[in-house]
Amino acid sequence: MFEASAPLSERRQVARDMFVLGFDAPAVAAAAKAGQFVNLGLQPGPLLRRPFSVYRAGGGRVEIVLRAVGEGTSQLLSLREGDLVSVLGPLGTGFRFDPAWRSVALVSGGLGLAPMLLAARDARAAGLSVHWVHGARTAWDLGSEWDGEEATWATDDGSRGFQGSAVAAVEEEFGAVLACGPNPMLAAVAERWPDAQVAVETYMGCGTGVCLGCAVPLTAGGYDRACREGPVYRAADVDWPALPSHLYYTAVPVASPSRPSPATGGGEVPV
Amino acid sequence: MFEASAPLSERRQVARDMFVLGFDAPAVAAAAKAGQFVNLGLQPGPLLRRPFSVYRAGGGRVEIVLRAVGEGTSQLLSLREGDLVSVLGPLGTGFRFDPAWRSVALVSGGLGLAPMLLAARDARAAGLSVHWVHGARTAWDLGSEWDGEEATWATDDGSRGFQGSAVAAVEEEFGAVLACGPNPMLAAVAERWPDAQVAVETYMGCGTGVCLGCAVPLTAGGYDRACREGPVYRAADVDWPALPSHLYYTAVPVASPSRPSPATGGGEVPV
Amino acid sequence: MTADLSVDLGHLRLRGPVIAASGTFGYGTEVPLLERRTLAAVVSKGIFLRPRPGTPPPRIVETPSGMLNAIGLQGPGAEALLRDYAPLWSAWDFPVLVNINGETVEEYGELTAQLDGVPGVGGFEVNISCPNVEQGGMYFGNDPRAAADVTRAVRRRTKLPVWVKLTPNVGDIAEVARAVEDAGADALCAVNTFLGMSIDLHSFRPRLSFRTGGLSGPAIRPLALHLAHQVARNVQVPVIGIGGIAGPEDALEFLVAGCAAVQVGTATFADPRAIAGVHDGIAAYLESKGWTSLKELPRYLPLD
Amino acid sequence: MTADLSVDLGHLRLRGPVIAASGTFGYGTEVPLLERRTLAAVVSKGIFLRPRPGTPPPRIVETPSGMLNAIGLQGPGAEALLRDYAPLWSAWDFPVLVNINGETVEEYGELTAQLDGVPGVGGFEVNISCPNVEQGGMYFGNDPRAAADVTRAVRRRTKLPVWVKLTPNVGDIAEVARAVEDAGADALCAVNTFLGMSIDLHSFRPRLSFRTGGLSGPAIRPLALHLAHQVARNVQVPVIGIGGIAGPEDALEFLVAGCAAVQVGTATFADPRAIAGVHDGIAAYLESKGWTSLKELPRYLPLD
Ligand SMILES: Cc1cc2nc3c(=O)[nH]c(=O)nc-3n(C[C@H](O)[C@H](O)[C@H](O)COP(=O)(O)OP(=O)(O)OC[C@H]3O[C@@H](n4cnc5c(N)ncnc54)[C@H](O)[C@@H]3O)c2cc1C
Ligand SMILES: Cc1cc2nc3c(=O)[nH]c(=O)nc-3n(C[C@H](O)[C@H](O)[C@H](O)COP(=O)(O)OP(=O)(O)OC[C@H]3O[C@@H](n4cnc5c(N)ncnc54)[C@H](O)[C@@H]3O)c2cc1C
Ligand SMILES: Cc1cc2nc3c(=O)[nH]c(=O)nc-3n(C[C@H](O)[C@H](O)[C@H](O)COP(=O)(O)O)c2cc1C
Ligand SMILES: Cc1cc2nc3c(=O)[nH]c(=O)nc-3n(C[C@H](O)[C@H](O)[C@H](O)COP(=O)(O)O)c2cc1C
Ligand code: FES
Ligand code: FES
Q: How deeply is C303 buried, as exposed, middle or buried, from its count of CB atoms within 10 A (0-12, 13-18, 19+)?
């Protein structure tokens, strides 16, 4: 685990509202495996760090993919090149890969695409054939980056590829399934492929295993730490109904038009 | 009073550690008078605004001059061009000017130079002849900008001009004295020129007169609001011993070398 | 279509849920507030019967997401208040309640009697976070009996709305709440500031001349929300939530937790238009939900 | 020359003033901490006699400059603690104190007896912020008598250091402090988290599954400092200050206010090296003042 005060060195858009940010943090980048995450600290900014899957890693750079859903993600997206962020990582236990599987399906929904590029990299390194099945609401919300051979797209509105969820879009049999996406989607994965490896999301306090804030309820009883034993679990090991499904990625739709905030843009008004 | 979400449009150094920042806020700039201040809000940033004298105003821009002494000032100095700050102002009651005085001495110490350029402007507009007497620790700490005729420099170490304080450096008689600087210096001004107009500093909660946080103890008893009745007072009206002299412009000298902060620069360390 | 944001407190109807908190909005005259339409009511700076100079500076200290204050209830006294402010208030289209304070139970009563019936005085917010000089400086608000005594003394002198503002610095706020409700309060305001301290590392003494101060601002919000919710679950009269509210989401949390209205204080220091922002944001939220009235907002008030 | 930062608690000598707070540093084994030299001691995550699963998620909520937690004292129980952690601790060059919890007075005593004398267990921090099931769920820490009972039950079972950790959610903390001092505590830790709540505007229910949680982090610092100072003025035993300490200045405020040492909790979440930062910053401060020992730091402990 490293802590890097890392400059933003890359920013690009990959889907509607979805951006990739890259930070120069060579030691973190070199150590990162698929399914692991980094915990980003902003100062000034919110008290706690924000966890993000490692999207890409290489050339001394760690990349994440995100959408603005609240204070921390908005602040991250307003950074400019060279701005420093504290990158702590890599954290957590990533995906396992077993050459015996021969093939693997990577199933993702929405921002769940985040760990899949690295998963494809590590799967290929393990000699596996890789098929990515990725779903989103519309064609505009699908990620645009994929360097592999086989990919299936799914959209809720049918605007590209299969109409329906990524889970429903998987038609063949694979040696193994790796999945990431909203927790309800992962519950569906668990129904269909109990042995799938899934990367879950929880609120996190520390990201390093000391606070027990990231509890993942287990079917065997008790709780694991998403940041340490997870975020990757065997799908059937997670007690899905007990895992909060109310982690919303949309802010409460209230407007505070008159609060002076750099984010709301310029203008001068008498008070 | 206006609230402007104003972009930083100017930044220049005027002495060792001393910088001028300019914000595009035409309505504030047009209304500002010498001795008035603006209250700046940062988001993200500290909860309360930070008050600064208007240093220059014109061409749609408000300028302030400052040194990094804490969180707010450090954050202001790390802004980049185009970054937005909430500028609230102009606030407070500035200097009065009376043509009957004929001449006026502007006496300032350290950052107390802040209101003096505007004071010179407004004094000249009132037909007064202006003499600026400005002191600082060393020649490196004197401000470099002065567009008037008469100026006397004073330094504690004698590295430029008079050796000693700005107050001691005033030799002639003037129709009136206007002063700004650390509160102990203003107490010395009050001793010598009871009728001088002095601009004081206090902690401020609101800057708009509603919180009573900025109490200035009066010789007549009771307290005034620095943000409303002040910051400019008749020197002899302020109960100087009761005005806190422990508003320090130096942070407590502690280093937190290992706190991850963008301010501490790059680097990557194992934890 | 704009949602109906009016609030019926039973004893008083307000045109909205957002009230300016005492001590953070002066006498309502200081800030030329353009968005007056969004102000449901103003509670004026705390006042004593007689003029008070207040505490020496420093009076405020900033803390993470909060601030400590020890203003010492500086104020002009009842006579000047009636002369200088009440006439202005009487012309406004929203009520001004006077935050009243005393060193003895009798002083609260006398102050109420002097202000009662004067045009412009729309009601009373009784600040019980004052030291009771007759009981060795113990705060009225810490003792259910003393708090009830003060409430009764005020209630007896007026038919105007009487709100009692609770202090959080107490072992069991619900006990005090029930006591002042029984004593005749029309509404309870929860809460006042939390006792805190800050030390100056130059002088090795407290930064505030008064040594301790009251903590306000977003830092206290989760604590204030919990206490307001406790109060709401334990009384029948309306509860007005206070503490760290800066945006509409914050206010909605207090409303869902059982409050009938809210007060905004410290947030106005950072943003003179904070009250308008909270009000308009609540309206936008209701509209996004398709609700036509604040009454449709679900409340969380479990019985256990 | 490096200043002497060691702290003599009377019953225990620490090599520095900065201790890792319970529940925020796991069992001291989680983070591969390079700056171990700066750790004066570790207080392990709170433990009960028997294993506890803890509360369902969500367990934490961020708030302005703070966070609420309701972990529910998840832990492996005494047996597993002794098996899995004590052997590791016994090799360390700083003490590990175990944060102990119980539902009855007897449970505290039994837990102490089981842990006492085992190599690696350097002492006890008694967490009295637990519901007392024998007294209808009232917190031990809210009742001076129950708090003293627990302290005595622990004290009787061990000669190791016994620290008692006070809760801030109480009317008069000084009263509880004196009661547990009289009952034999070697030091008092002030304070634990403040009760708070947060409401989810999607579900209209509390964000925490446990409904309420404890507030920690910089937001509470001025409140915690005030309480720690109150305790320090009212007892003779050393006081360990806790609450929102993130940097050296924060720690110095507690030390000036009369604390002998401090604990750092939530700050380590944002910065795994926070403890080293606080320790090194204190050293730098002393050196800048020309002081050779922490003992030269002025203290502010007025008698009135
Ligand atoms: C292991 C892990 C990996 C993650 N990877 C990614 C990623 O690759 N890309 C990405 O965009 N996001 C990822 N997330 C989620 C990301 O951490 C949150 O979106 C982020 O913390 C929100 O911060 P904020 O300040 O913008 O939002 P907040 O203001 O904190 O919250 C905004 C909304 O998001 C919800 N939320 C906040 N935190 C979380 C969380 N940890 N999990 C779920 N919902 C949350 C809240 O309920 C709220 O409604 C990951 C989370 C975890 C635990
Ligand atoms: C009317 C007025 C006009 C001012 N004009 C200027 C100006 O033109 N240029 C300029 O550089 N500064 C000016 N100041 C002071 C400026 O407001 C403070 O330096 C600033 O608020 C410090 O903020 P910070 O967050 O950097 O420091 P903090 O972290 O808040 O504090 C750092 C140190 O500065 C001290 N300090 C903080 N606030 C004040 C204050 N209001 N007054 C005195 N000391 C304080 C503290 O004691 C502390 O030791 C003015 C203040 C007032 C009231
Ligand atoms: C500077 C200041 C002065 C205050 N004066 C009073 C007062 O006179 N009477 C009173 O009842 N409350 C007073 N309060 C408390 C506020 O009305 C409010 O209860 C508290 O600040 C919490 O709300 P907030 O976090 O929104 O500010 C004052 C608060 C501040 C910050
Ligand atoms: C996630 C979390 C878990 C905690 N667990 C315990 C515990 O088990 N026992 C205990 O006495 N205190 C516990 N605490 C309280 C801390 O030890 C500390 O008293 C409190 O957080 C205030 O300090 P801080 O602001 O530095 O975090 C916990 C705090 C947090 C944030
Ligand atoms: S986030 Fe703290 S233990 Fe996992
Ligand atoms: S700063 Fe609030 S009244 Fe002056």
A: exposed
Tens-place pLDDT, residues D66-119 = 999 999 999 999 999 999 999 999 999 999 999 999 999 999 999 999 999 999
State how far residue D49 is from chain A, nearest Cα, in angstroms. 17
- Ligand 6 centroid–CA D77 distance in Å is 54
pTM (two decimals) = 0.96
Question: How far is Cα B243 from Cα B183, in angstroms, rounded to an integer?
Answer: 8
Give the span between the Cα atoms of C297 and C252, in whole angstroms: 9
Domain ranges of chain C: 7-296
- Of 3.30.565.10, 3.40.50.1170, 3.20.20.70, 3.40.50.300, the CATH number of D7-296 is 3.20.20.70
User: D interface toward C at CB cutoff 8 Å?
Assistant: 61, 63-66, 68, 142, 170-172, 194-199, 201, 204-206, 212-213, 215, 217-223, 225-226, 229, 244, 249, 252-253, 256-257, 285, 298-300
Query: What is the distance between the alpha carbons of residues A136 and A67, in angstroms, rounded to a whole number?
Result: 13
**3-state secondary structure at position B72:** helix
Q: How far is residue D244's CA from residue D265's CA, in Å, rounded to a whole number?
A: 7
Domain at A2-91, CATH homologous superfamily? Translation factors (2.40.30.10)
Question: What confidence tens digit (pLDDT) does each residue in D192-245 have?
Answer: 999 999 999 999 999 999 999 999 999 999 999 999 999 999 999 999 999 999
Q: How far is CA B212 from the centre of its chain?
A: 21
Degrees (nearest 5) of the Cα angle A241, A243, A249? 115
Give dist(CA C259, CA D19) in Å, integer: 41
Contact C57 B243 (CB under 8 A): yes
According to DSSP, residue C55 is labeled P
- On the question of pLDDT at D289 being above 90, the answer is yes
What residues in B contact A91, CB-CB < 8 Å?
none
**Complex confidence, ipTM:** 0.95
- The token duo for A172 is 């063949």
| Residue pair A14/A65 in contact by the 8 Å Cβ criterion | yes
Cβ atoms of residues C187 and C165 within 8 Å: no
Of D121, D130, D180, D242, the catalytic one is D130
The fold adopted by the segment(s) B99-242 is Rossmann fold (3.40.50)
CA distance D157 to chain A (A): 29
Q: Which two tokens stand for residue C278?
A: 């909270």
CA C168–ligand 3 middle distance (angstroms) = 12
Q: For residue C76, which amino acid is it?
A: P
Residues 5..24 of A with a Cβ closer than 8 Å to B: which?
A: 5-7, 24
CA distance D34 to A1: 11
For C198-245, how does the pLDDT look when each residue is reduced to its tens digit (9 = 90+)?
999 999 999 999 999 999 999 999 999 999 999 999 999 999 999 999
Residue D296: other Cβ atoms inside 10 A: 12
pLDDT surpasses 60 at A255: no
Closest CA to B151 of B161, B163, B165, B136: B161
What span, in angstroms and rounded, lies between the C-alpha atoms of D277 and D268? 10
Residues 6 or more apart in contact with residue B171 via CB below 8 angstroms = none
Give the containing element (helix H, strand E) for C105: helix C105-115
Active site residue D189: no
Output DSSP code: residue C293.
Answer: B
C221 phi, psi to nearest 5 deg: -55, -50
For residue A184, how far is the Cα from the chain centroid? 15
Q: Where are the domains of chain B?
A: 2-91, 99-242
Residues in contact with B161: Cβ distance below 8 Å, sequence separation at least 6, in sequence order: B152, B153, B154, B155, B169
Q: Are C203 and C229 in contact (CB under 8 A)?
A: no
Distance from CA of D273 to the nearest CA of B (A): 6
